[in-house]
Amino acid sequence: MAPRQCPIGAATIAFSLAVIISVVSAAAPAPAPAPANKNHTVGGAAGWFYNTSSVAPSANYSDWAASQTFYLGDFLIFNTNTNSSVVQTGNDTTYSLCDASNDDGNQTFLWGSDGGDSNSSNPEVLEIPLIYEGPNYFFSDTMDGEQCQNGMKFEINVLHGNGLPPALKQPPSPSPVPKPLPPTSTGGDGSSNENQTSEKNGVEGIRGGFVLAILGMLSLFLTTV
Ligand SMILES: *[C@@H]1O[C@H](CO)[C@@H](O)[C@H](O)[C@H]1NC(C)=O
Ligand SMILES: *[C@@H]1O[C@H](CO)[C@@H](O)[C@H](O)[C@H]1NC(C)=O
Ligand SMILES: *[C@@H]1O[C@H](CO)[C@@H](O)[C@H](O)[C@H]1NC(C)=O
Ligand SMILES: *[C@@H]1O[C@H](CO)[C@@H](O)[C@H](O)[C@H]1NC(C)=O
Ligand SMILES: *[C@@H]1O[C@H](CO)[C@@H](O)[C@H](O)[C@H]1NC(C)=O
Ligand SMILES: *[C@@H]1O[C@H](CO)[C@@H](O)[C@H](O)[C@H]1NC(C)=O
Ligand SMILES: *[C@@H]1O[C@H](CO)[C@@H](O)[C@H](O)[C@H]1NC(C)=O
Ligand SMILES: *[C@@H]1O[C@H](CO)[C@@H](O)[C@H](O)[C@H]1NC(C)=O
Predict the structure, then answer these.
(1) 112: CA distance to ligand 6 center in Å?
(2) What pTM did the predictor assign?
(3) Ligand 6 pocket, CB under 6 A
């Protein structure tokens, strides 16, 4: 009977339209996915080491940095040893001087060994969260800036991405705080003549600056909630 075919035909058309629409919408480009947070191993497999014989770093860090894209909430992983340090700063003067000792500002932090007076070469892994958008500078201040002057340095631009993950809004303690050196007993030549709890010029200022930065961010966090 002809009248019965009509609703079937309409249903078929409606179904076909639904299929077409769903196929078309599935094929339509999805909004660009927000980048997932990533860990960047500094220098790749070569790590963050300085060769005192060849007077050269183990990698070209500016080339390495140029190959990466950095977002808030990513981590930099420094595979290094206590012969080198990592200063993180937003202060381009300090960066260009390869010297943090006259920088008491709140943008400059020392990670890892304070270096310089350490003859040991204990392995060390530093995991540094990227919590500042914009230019971030990294260098080793060990050997009075000599390592930095010979290439132990790089700058990156941290993009907003998804913004700072909640877990990093209040920086986890103690991980962003400079870590103590590993115990002397794990080896290293000449380690007996170093005092691992002593602090050199500037280090106290850097650590004090970091405490202020934490307090600042904490109060910012508390006033925004
Ligand atoms: C990146 O490193 C951090 C700090 O060690 C760690 O908590 C996190 O799980 C790592 N993420 C990935 C994707 O490996
Ligand atoms: C350091 O440099 C010296 C001289 O160029 C080289 O013989 C040595 O293998 C290097 N050490 C490492 C760990 O790369
Ligand atoms: C940047 O560092 C220099 C010394 O390296 C210091 O004189 C200056 O006050 C610092 N600026 C800020 C904003 O902390
Ligand atoms: C390492 O120790 C030796 C002997 O104690 C000393 O002469 C040398 O200056 C030290 N090196 C550094 C980089 O502190
Ligand atoms: C650590 O530095 C000392 C000199 O300060 C050097 O003799 C030694 O080879 C270095 N070790 C490594 C693994 O770079
Ligand atoms: C790293 O490589 C670039 C060229 O890609 C060069 O201009 C720069 O001087 C190198 N840096 C070091 C420290 O060798
Ligand atoms: C290391 O330095 C700290 C602080 O200056 C001091 O209290 C301690 O006695 C020193 N330890 C050694 C073994 O020299
Ligand atoms: C550092 O200090 C400046 C000026 O006092 C302030 O505007 C800024 O928010 C501070 N940054 C942090 C990370 O505390």
Answers:
(1) 25
(2) 0.67
(3) 60, 62-63, 151
Quick: pLDDT tens for 1-36: 444 554 555 555 555 555 545 555 555 566 566 689
Give the nearest ligand 4 atom to 193 CA: 5
Return the closest-CA partner of residue 58 out of 40, 75, 44, 71.
44
Nearest ligand by distance to the CA of 46: 2
Measured by CA distance, the residue closest to atom 12 of ligand 2 is: 51
**Nearest bound ligand to the CA of residue 165:** 1
Angle among Cα 206, 210, 216 to the nearest 5 degrees reads 145
The residue ranges of DSSP E strands in the chain, in sequence order, are: 39-41, 50-51, 56-57, 70-71, 75-81, 86-89, 108-111, 123-129, 134-139, 153-159
109 pairs with which residues across the strands?
88
Query: Contact at 8 Å (CB) between 169 and 217?
Result: yes
89: its two tokens: 């700063």
For 125-150, what is each residue's pLDDT tens digit? 999 999 999 999 999 988 889 999 99
Phi, psi at 126, each rounded to 5°? -110, 125
d(CA 176, CA 128): 7
Mutate to test the pocket of ligand 7, among 195, 200, 201 (most ligand atoms within 8 A of CB): 195
The residue contributing the CA closest to ligand 7 atom 11 is: 195
